[in-house]
């Protein structure tokens, strides 16, 4: 039974993602490379829970049913709102204890918690939670809330890194749901393909009157990608550093906007991204993209750099790597974004500054087209 929510007003500001934002979040899914012992522990813990949850919930990844996905969304969104609230409370109390400022972290963490709760409320307007789902939700919160509270007062960076890895799985899950909803004949397409967006979702994400449930799922996926980037960034910052996202909430500050558009600096550090793993959060259609990309003429790829460099007119011979990815997509060039970024760090960004110089790009294209018959992978 669906719940009807009338005359709901959003009390806080949230981002309504554009089609370009959504496509970028779906096709570009960076995965943080754990290097410290704690990071590795957190990463393998999330990976263990991911596979374990799939097993005990009998989740069929090849063709999941609407019932299985409904349980998955209700359970995961109910616990996803816990870390942000716990993290915000820990920062709040620390600020009071130390008689010092917070540097703008609290608001972003509260926004994350509220956003995850809105995901849950949106799902609940579409589907009813059964007794098993309610028991699982209460049990998980009973364990997770006090555990995260203790960890937050020991070292909150552990929570941010844990959530960053958790959000990687969330983006992958929602991308998979979108793919299945768009696949004719799949169970999700048959069960959910005709559903329209609930009013609460239309208001929250400022959607059109004819928005569909698929459009809502896409907005949620983009939200999760944002949470992934925020938490991996927070885990890499010192606690007294200013929150680089705070201006995003006020829609101001060109410097902060440029930081956001670069997809957060954590991706461009040395050895920051781990290699693709076919058995865990793999990206679909990688081989198809590779074969299609190998047929593109050099001139067309070179134009992509010019388009990307135009985004930073003050430095016309330098391009942001994500602007290059967007330019390649605008040119109609299919590309595996994750593999491309890993190769970019290893082979293109020669000076390691996280940006691409024109001479670096030219050298890259020259080497690629010299060995193109051997099937170089972009």
Task: Provide an overview of this structure.
Helix 6 runs antiparallel to helix 9 (213-236). This protein has helices at 19-27, 37-56, 66-98, 105-126, 131-154, 156-181, 187-192, 199-204, 213-236, 246-250, 254-261, 286-293, 298-309, 321-330, 337-348, 358-370, and strands at 318-319, 356-357. The termini are far apart. It has 378 residues and is mostly helical. It is built from 16 helices and two strands. The chain folds into two domains: 19-254, Ferritin (Up-down Bundle); 286-374, Recoverin, domain 1. It has a two-stranded antiparallel sheet with strand order 1-2. 63% of the residues lie in helices and 1% in strands.
Main attributes?
Ferritin; two-stranded antiparallel ribbon; single chain; 378 residues; Recoverin, domain 1; 16 helices; 1% strand
Main β-sheet description: 2 strands, antiparallel
Order of helices and strands: HHHHHHHHHHHHHEHHEH
- Report the radius of gyration as a whole number of Å: 21 Å
- For the record, the count of structural domains works out to 2
Helix content: 55-70%
Largest sheet: spatial strand order: 1-2
Question: So what's the CATH class of the largest domain?
Answer: Mainly Alpha
Number of helical regions: 16
**Residue windows where pLDDT falls under 50 for at least 5 positions:** 251-263, 373-378
Tell how many strands the DSSP assignment holds: 2
Instruction: Write the CATH fold name of the largest domain.
Output: Ferritin
Structural class: mainly alpha
Name of the CATH superfamily of the largest domain: Alternative oxidase
Mean pLDDT, all residues: 81
Strand content: under 5%
The CATH architecture of the largest domain can be named as: Up-down Bundle
Shape: globular
What is the terminal-to-terminal distance?
A: 48 Å
């Amino acid at each position: 039974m669906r719940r009807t929510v009338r005359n709901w007003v959003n009390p806080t500001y949230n981002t309504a993602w554009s089609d370009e934002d959504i496509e970028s979040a779906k096709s570009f899914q960076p995965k943080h490379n754990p290097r410290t012992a704690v990071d590795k522990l957190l990463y393998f813990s999330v990976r263990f829970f991911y596979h374990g949850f799939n097993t005990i919930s009998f989740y069929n990844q090849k063709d999941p049913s609407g019932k299985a996905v409904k349980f998955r969304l209700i359970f995961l969104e109910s616990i996803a709102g816990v870390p942000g609230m716990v993290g915000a409370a820990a920062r709040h109390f620390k600020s009071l204890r130390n008689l010092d400022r917070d540097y703008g972290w609290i608001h972003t963490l509260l926004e994350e918690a509220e956003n995850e709760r809105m995901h849950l409320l949106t799902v609940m307007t579409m589907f009813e939670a059964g007794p098993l789902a309610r028991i699982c939700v209460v049990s998980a919160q009973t364990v997770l809330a006090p555990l995260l509270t203790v960890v937050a007062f020991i070292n909150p960076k552990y929570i941010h890194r844990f959530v960053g890895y958790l959000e990687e799985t969330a983006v992958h899950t929602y991308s998979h749901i979108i793919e299945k909803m768009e696949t004719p004949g799949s169970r999700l397409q048959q069960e959910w393909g005709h559903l329209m967006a609930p009013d609460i979702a239309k208001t929250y994400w400022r959607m059109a009157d004819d928005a569909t449930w698929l459009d809502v799922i896409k907005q949620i996926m983009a939200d999760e990608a944002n949470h992934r980037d925020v938490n991996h960034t927070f885990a890499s910052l010192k606690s007294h550093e200013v929150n680089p996202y705070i201006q995003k909430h006020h829609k101001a500050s060109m410097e902060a906007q440029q930081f956001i558009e670069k997809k957060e600096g954590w991706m461009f550090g040395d050895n920051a991204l781990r290699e693709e793993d076919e058995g865990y959060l793999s990206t679909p259609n990688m081989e198809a993209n590779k074969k299609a990309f190998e047929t593109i003429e050099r001139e067309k790829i070179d134009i992509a750099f010019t388009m990307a460099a135009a985004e930073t007119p003050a430095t016309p011979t330098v391009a942001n790597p994500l602007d290059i990815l967007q330019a390649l997509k605008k040119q109609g060039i299919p590309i595996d974004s994750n593999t491309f970024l890993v190769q970019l760090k290893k082979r293109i960004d020669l000076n390691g500054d996280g940006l691409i110089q024109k001479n670096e790009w030219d050298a890259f294209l020259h080497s690629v087209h010299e060995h193109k018959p051997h099937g170089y992978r972009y």
